[in-house]
Amino acid sequence: MKPLFSLFLIIATSCVVHSAALIGPFDYSSSSQFTSNFYVTHLPSTTPASTLGVTGGQLVNVSIHGGDATSWVYDTTPDGTPTNASFVNFTVSTTFSVSTDSGSLGFYFYNGGNRTSSLQAMISLNSTTNDLIRFWTGSNMNTSAAGTIASSTSLATGFTLNTLYVATLTAQTLSPGNVQATLTISDPNLILADFSASYTFTGVVPTAGEIGFRSYTNVGTNYFDNLVATAIPEPSSTVLLLAGGMMVWTLRRRIRRSI
Which domains does the chain possess? Predict the structure, then answer.
């Protein structure tokens, strides 16, 4: 029975490893959480310049001038050379709030380490009654150029300013070259019904990439908090989990028979 039990432990450990967090969780309780784990790829320099940093336990992007976006990427050796470009099949979420209804925020992904050409899932804040979820190709993290729109979906209702929401992106490779992305907006206060939109990118060459972020506000402030990214279990992990359950059942039967 000992070899059988040891095998079960290996299976269980493997399943736990597959469900571990890839990024975070980050609650920005200290500024080092941001400065040690992220690299700012583009910060508008138009005077007066935009700012991005940790304030009061939140990551805060302030734009006084407007007209340009701020971008940053998860990079555990923060510099111009991609270090963490192996993310594939993941879910990333962050809480956010906005102070103006003219702006956007989004996630960069599947760029193969090429920061000049990423896929992007974006929330476009057009007005308090007509906000959008958009998917883009060819997004440039170094200039914050949004790229080319691949899909656009109107939200049922607009966001309430200075109110906390949760944005969650799930990105998964369905088959070689085909990546399905789903962006979901949730309201912890349950006032706004959950809303999501999906799009399947085709002809995607990078099989993985970095996870980056984009924030734009036309003279206003965007707030971010509670960032975490986790892996989507691979089919092999699901099989291992089922095998582990079967192993437990078999062990319990053998123990009962021996009593």
Answer: 28-233 (2.60.120.560)
